[in-house]
């Protein structure tokens, strides 16, 4: 994402923060535990090849990886950027002209699954992306992971196409974010655009 500040925010008992090098080993362990849990459920989505430590280090280097900690331990992680794989061209995007970001690698530790943490994290992601001027979020979800498919469907992410990668078929999904209104009846993005045209910087409206 374009905003590079060290972001920290508390959502109930989860503290979200931009990951740094000190988080790499715990983040690798998070994805490893999740991959093993998926495999035990017969879902062949992640393995030792992806997402591996190289991918996660690159996320951290680009300041695109956020971790959510409970009691000081990483419980969830995700990456956000604007980098679309070539297969995203398969999507019949409903909002092609919107300013969008892409959600990658949303992962909840098995110890914290079935507790609503994924939905809570999605809500946090949507709020932060909206605050940063994005109009919509795009992502891909593994068709053989029914729990994730239900979660994204219930969260309002519409299937607009499919992509095929090493592990199989993935649904391309999209959600239009609700406009956030700021003082004087304007949306936050309208104020940002107007201010940017004047060379001004705007604060974050909450």
Note down, in words, how this protein is organized.
This protein is of the alpha+beta class and 206 residues long. The protein is 29% helix and 28% strand. The protein has 5 helices and 8 strands. The protein has an 8-stranded mixed sheet. α1 (24-40) crosses α2 (53-61). The longest helix is centred in the first third of the chain and has 17 residues, at 24-40. Mean pLDDT is 88; it is low at 2-6 and 199-206.
Report the mean per-residue pLDDT as an integer: 88
Order of helices and strands: EEHHEEEHEHEEH
Unreliably modeled segments: 2-6, 199-206
Number of strands: 8
Q: How many individual helices?
A: 5
Based on CA atoms alone, the radius of gyration comes out at 17 Å
Label the overall shape: globular
Question: Which structural category do the helix and sheet elements fall into?
Answer: alpha+beta
